[in-house]
Design a protein that fits this description.
single chain, about 425 residues, alpha+beta, 9 helices, 10 strands, rod-shaped
Amino acid sequence: MSSDMLKSKILLAIFCLAVFAADVYAQEQTLSLEQCKQMALEHNLGLKVAHEHVGATDALSKSARTNFYPNISANAAYTRVNKPFSLIDGDKLIPVVPFSSINAETGEFDPNLDPANTFVFNPISGEMLYDKYGNPVFNSYAWLPSDQFELGAKNIFVGGVSLIQPIFTGGKIRETYNISKRGNALAQASLAKEKTDVLYKTEESYWRVVALSEKVKMVKQYIVLLEKLKHDTENLFDEGIILKNDMLKVRVKLNEANLNLHKAQNGVRLSQMALCQVVGLPLQTEIALADSLAKGISIAPEMAYADSAMAARPELNALTQTVGIAQSAVKIAKSRYMPNIGLTASYSVLNPNPYKGFSSSFGADWSVGVAMNIPIFHWNDKSHTLRAARHELNAAERKLNEARELISLQVQQAVFA
């Protein structure tokens, strides 16, 4: 029994807390324009996506910067072979030349110096003997077994460290890095535009609520006047001073005003819900705004608007970065005509040891070199690529100029609207 009572108390406490929280949450919140802007910037998912793009392009820029530095890598390999390499295809007999047949002046073999000790002769005819291939038969031969001319082992180990440092690439690395930096600047411009759009949407939603709230107040004041007029016209009608039609006209106007009040109140609620969505509040949240149309609003001079638009519009910044990227692309296309020069260095370890007769031990050595690649002819591929890059640059520059003209026109339209 006591357990059931305890459960009931716990459930009652939870219910009371939920009701209290809902009541507190349902209380009207008073928000200023700056508060709404701050809440919108913190809530907007598009801004968060733009922030991620900025982080990604920043990482890519740092990655492109590493191309200026040497590329160091280590490699290792193990190979198990079935058969070793053999330098000869079978056992061989190599003729042995006596020292007496060597010319002392030239150091070369001379068969005429001592033929008796060099070749084999027929004891009967005294003629030199030849083998089946037509070669003279020597007195002495050295036997070379093929298994003594096998190279390598069944277990082969290779390891090393290599370094590659670009020396000259025609500007490819520099311009690639410039493109990555401009890509980051382009992402930041997109972030700025997204932020501007969020702030504009917030202000638009905020002042729409203010304007509709003022409209509700105005309609209510109008209704008060109509109700007084209705009362007066009814009295005048009772006195016979005016016609019934005049009294009915006032009633119709009053009904229209009540209908307009209902529409305006619905508009206020819908605009409040739209503002709640922008700033990240639940749609049913009751809000009140700290501003009203009665407060004065300062308007900057015409030239201030024009100068501010040209200096701060993120679209212009983004298009400027696009032009810079296109310029770097043209330089990269030109660099394809130039040679590529690089420094290479390596340190290798091998087993079997090629420096000790391929013995079963580890041998090591280092090497340094310079490599160069010179493009000669590729069927005008490079010229076509360069022409395409120049067209893209021209298009980007024209788009930037068009954007400047349109923004200037927008400023003038906004000022004289």
